[in-house]
């Protein structure tokens, strides 16, 4: 998951976006994508009004890829209405269950 430092000048914006993205659930794993560790990086350019979200999926052949990417775009657009949103999917590093947050593990009963 993305590591956002409180010293980041865009900390509050990134946290607000992560809070909105936590409403997006992976339909197969039934856990939100933030706690799954699918969000790798958030870049916000306030001058250009652009946001780039770099994320992954649980597998390269994820059948919910279009749904998840669309939901991420929708939530980011709702949060930052006058920004252009780009969602980049990467598989480096490849996702593993080790990336699930402690809260996510508890929700899954692990």
Task: Describe this entry's structure for a reader.
It is a single chain. This protein has three helices and five strands; from the N terminus they run αββββαβα. Strands 3-4-5 form a three-stranded mixed β-sheet, with helices on one face. A two-stranded antiparallel sheet has the order 1-2. The protein has 110 residues and is of the alpha+beta class. A hairpin with a 4-residue loop joins strand 3 and strand 4 (50-55). Helix 1 packs across helix 2. The longest helix has 15 residues, at 65-79. Helices cover 30% and strands 21% of the residues.
Please sum up the structure shown.
The chain has helices at 11-21, 65-79, 102-108, and strands spanning 25-26, 31-32, 39-45, 50-55, 84-89. With 110 residues, the chain is of the alpha+beta class.
Strands in their spatial order, largest beta sheet:
3-4-5
Evaluate the radius of gyration.
Answer: 13 Å
**Class based on secondary structure composition and strand pairing:** alpha+beta
- Give the number of helices: 3
Strand content: 15-25%
Low-confidence stretches: none
Outline: globular
Biggest sheet statistics: 3 strands, mixed
Number of strands: 5
Distance N terminus to C terminus?
Answer: 18 Å
* Average pLDDT metric: 94
Topology order in helix (H) and strand (E) letters: HEEEEHEH
Residues in helices, as a percent range: 25-40%
């Amino acid at each position: 998951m993305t590591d956002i430092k409180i010293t980041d000048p865009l900390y509050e914006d990134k946290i607000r976006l992560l809070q909105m993205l936590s409403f997006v659930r992976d339909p197969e794993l039934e856990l939100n994508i933030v706690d799954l560790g699918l969000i790798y990086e958030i870049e916000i350019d306030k001058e250009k009004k652009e946001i780039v979200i770099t994320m992954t999926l649980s597998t390269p052949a994820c059948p919910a890829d279009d749904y998840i990417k669309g939901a991420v775009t929708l939530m980011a657009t709702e949060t930052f209405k006058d920004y252009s949103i780009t969602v980049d999917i990467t598989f480096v590093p490849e996702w593993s269950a080790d990336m699930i947050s402690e809260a996510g593990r508890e929700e899954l009963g692990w």
